[in-house]
C-alpha cells in the first residue's frame, strides 16, 4: 500500500483547518504525515489545527 504526505497551507483558517486535517487523515491511500503551514494567522488557526476533533 502506498503512503502519502499531505501539506495544508493555512492563513486565518480557524474555521476550516480542522476539517481539512481530519479529511486528509481519512483519505486513501494511507496518509503518513499531515503538515500544515500557518503563514502568520492572526486568529486561532494554530490551535484548531493542533486539535482537529475539538473544532469539528
Verbal overview:
It is a single chain. This protein is 34% helix and 30% strand. A two-stranded parallel ribbon has the order 1-2. The protein has one domain. The chain contains three helices and two strands; from the N terminus they run E-H-E-H-H. The chain is elongated, with a radius of gyration of 11 Å. By secondary structure, the chain is of the alpha+beta class.
**Sheet with the most strands: spatial strand order:** 1-2
Give the number of domains.
1
Q: Residue share in helices?
A: 25-40%
Shape: elongated
Mean pLDDT over all positions: 81
Unreliable residue runs: none
Strand content: 25-35%
What is the N-to-C succession of helices and strands?
EHEHH
Multimeric state: single chain
Secondary structure tally: strands:
2
Number of helices: 3
Report the span from N to C terminus: 29 Å
Report Rg: 11 Å
- Strand pairing plus helix content: what structural class? alpha+beta
How does the major sheet shape up? 2 strands, parallel
Amino acid at each position: 500500500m502506498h503512503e502519502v504526505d499531505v501539506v495544508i497551507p493555512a492563513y486565518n483558517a480557524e474555521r476550516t483547518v480542522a476539517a481539512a486535517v481530519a479529511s486528509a487523515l481519512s483519505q486513501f491511500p494511507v496518509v503518513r504525515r499531515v503538515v500544515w503551514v500557518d503563514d502568520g494567522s492572526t486568529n486561532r488557526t494554530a490551535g484548531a489545527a493542533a486539535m482537529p476533533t475539538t473544532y469539528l
